[in-house]
């Protein structure tokens, strides 16, 4: 049976922390989509670990990890990240990580193209991580990409990569600074190094589910960055929603125990695109500084604003969360008043919209309806039980639950895994 963890906003909600909490009871931890553009920071036993391409289930020495078929896989990052974990003292990581033979390869060629495409977009640029994720998914959709299984057919691999590079060279000319022969030569060694990690991912998970093993699925990015349901085109290039879990892993949808949405107690996003509760004044700056809002993968500072429950409710409608985790509640400790977005009004009609709009032109003009809640002006850092929270902090949690219609089972009150209030358990913890 599987427990699925998904981001409910624009990413960086703290999914890695919940993965870390649940991992001790998981036998298998998987990634379904995205690439090394994802980023989780986990603090365990006083050591901070950063995960990008690798599932953070590697923290658990008894957990087997799988990078699923829907991921775009950057080989140098895979080996670099493994070494970094080993250097920090994690034992046996190379024995506990497997990669589906159906992943698409994210080449350095794709990263070079990513930067050039952002330049082409000018002021309308997406704000990508520049790591080739979009171009890798583009070649996958165009059926010109290269799967992991094809890496082991040297002649086919080299033919396809040269053809791919030639096509991009025709498009960008001398602007493309890339040496295809250099990348081909590196893959001669990668081909040998990868062999022990590659498995049939579909068969791997079918066996695991047939054996009723406890599976933890770690979502990357978040619903509002989903290629279909997010703020398109300011999104990632994969399905990072619930649907992407099924396509990216070929997991049995009838063997799901729980779908957990992770919600930050306020809202952040990276890159371009509409963000209607963004605060460019004192409150936004304070959220950024107190919350240490800069990226694990890129170091970029995140845009910050008030919690948007229109977004969370929309996300819930798509991902069907059975429970929520609320993170970084302690960041709000010193705000005398806390605002929460509970609706959007159409600027033309004054009528409240039924849901989160697809039309970004409309979204940028909406009037945000806020509910103001009293702050608590007391420290909640490291509080362990719900009723030890100040009354106003409990009210904030209960307001979110009532509005969204989903129980909040975990509340984050600090960066460490121990800094968590538990208000129930998942099937994975039983």
Determine the structural class based on helices, strands and strand pairing.
Answer: alpha/beta
Distance separating the two termini: 12 Å
Could you say what the CATH topology of the largest domain is called? Adenylosuccinate Synthetase, Chain A, domain 1
Total helix count?
Answer: 13
- Using the alpha-carbon principal axes, give the shape: globular
Radius of gyration: 22 Å
Q: Stretches where pLDDT falls below 50 for ≥5 residues? A: none
Q: If you had to describe this structure to a student in words, what would you say it looks like?
A:
With 430 residues, the chain is α/β, with parallel strands linked by helices. The chain is built from 13 helices and 19 strands. Helix 3 packs across helix 4 (133-141) and helix 6 runs antiparallel to helix 7. The longest helix has 19 residues, at 154-172. The protein is globular.
Tags for this model:
19 strands, Adenylosuccinate Synthetase, subunit A, domain 2, Adenylosuccinate Synthetase, Chain A, domain 1, single chain, 33% helix, EC 6.3.4.4, ten-stranded mixed β-sheet, 430 residues, three-stranded mixed β-sheet, Adenylosuccinate Synthetase, Chain A, domain 3, alpha/beta
Task: Summarize the structure in short.
The chain has 430 residues and is an alpha/beta fold.
Question: How does the SSE layout of this entry go?
Answer:
Elements: E1 2-7, H1 15-22, E2 28-31, E3 40-44, E4 47-51, E5 64-67, E6 72-73, H2 75-87, E7 97-100, E8 104-105, H3 108-121, H4 133-141, H5 148-151, H6 154-172, H7 180-194, E9 198-199, H8 201-210, E10 215-218, H9 242-249, E11 256-264, E12 267-269, H10 282-290, E13 303-305, E14 307-308, H11 309-319, E15 323-327, E16 337-345, H12 360-365, E17 367-374, H13 391-404, E18 408-412, E19 420-422
Parallel strand pairs: 1-10, 1-11, 2-5, 2-10, 5-7, 6-8, 7-9, 11-15, 14-16, 15-18
Antiparallel strand pairs: 3-4, 12-13, 16-17, 18-19
Helix pairs in contact: 3-4, 6-7
GO molecular function: adenylosuccinate synthase activity; AMP binding; GMP binding; GTP binding; magnesium ion binding
Family: Belongs to the adenylosuccinate synthetase family.
Catalytic activity: IMP + L-aspartate + GTP = N(6)-(1,2-dicarboxyethyl)-AMP + GDP + phosphate + 2 H(+)
């Amino acid at each position: 049976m599987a427990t699925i963890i998904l981001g409910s906003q624009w990413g960086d909600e703290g999914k890695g922390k919940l993965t870390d909490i649940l991992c001790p009871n998981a036998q298998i931890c998987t990634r379904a989509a995205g690439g090394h553009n994802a980023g989780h920071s986990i603090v365990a036993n006083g050591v901070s670990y950063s995960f990008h391409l690798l599932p953070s289930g590697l923290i658990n020495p008894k957990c087997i990890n799988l990078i699923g078929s829907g991921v775009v896989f950057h080989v140098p990052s895979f080996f670099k990240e493994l070494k970094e974990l080993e250097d920090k003292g994690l034992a046996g990581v190379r024995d506990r990580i497997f990669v589906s033979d159906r992943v698409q390869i994210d080449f350095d060629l794709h990263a070079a193209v990513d930067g050039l495409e952002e330049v082409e977009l000018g002021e309308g640029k997406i704000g990508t991580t520049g790591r080739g994720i979009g171009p890798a998914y583009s070649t996958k959709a165009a059926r010109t990409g290269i799967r992991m299984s094809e890496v082991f057919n040297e002649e086919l691999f080299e033919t396809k990569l040269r053809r791919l590079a030639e096509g991009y060279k025709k498009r960008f000319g001398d602007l493309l600074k890339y040496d295809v022969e250099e990348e081909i030569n590196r893959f001669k060694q990668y081909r040998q190094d990868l062999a022990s990690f590659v498995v049939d991912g579909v068969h791997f998970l079918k066996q695991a589910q047939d054996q009723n093993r406890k599976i933890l699925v770690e979502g990357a990015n978040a619903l509002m960055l989903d290629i279909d349901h997010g703020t398109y085109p300011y999104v990632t290039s994969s399905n990072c929603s619930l649907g992407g879990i099924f396509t990216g892993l070929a997991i049995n949808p009838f063997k799901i125990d729980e779908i957990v949405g992770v919600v930050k107690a306020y809202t952040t996003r990276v890159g371009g695109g509409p963000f209607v509760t963004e605060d460019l004044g004192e409150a936004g700056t304070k959220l950024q500084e107190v919350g240490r809002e800069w990226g694990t993968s890129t170091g970029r500072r995140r845009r910050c604003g008030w919690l948007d429950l229109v977004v969370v409710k929309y996300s819930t409608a798509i991902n069907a969360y059975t429970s929520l985790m609320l993170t970084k509640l302690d960041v709000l400790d010193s705000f005398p008043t806390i605002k929460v977005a509970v609706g959007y009004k159409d600027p033309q009609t004054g009528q409240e919209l039924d849901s989160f709009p697809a039309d970004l032109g409309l979204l940028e003009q909406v009037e945000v309806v806020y509910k103001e809640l009293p702050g608590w002006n007391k420290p909640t850092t490291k509080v362990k039980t719900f009723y030890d929270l100040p009354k106003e902090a409990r009210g904030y949690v209960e307001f979110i639950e009532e509005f969204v219609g989903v129980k909040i089972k975990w509340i984050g009150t600090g960066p460490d895994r121990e800094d968590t209030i538990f208000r129930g358990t998942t099937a994975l913890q039983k």
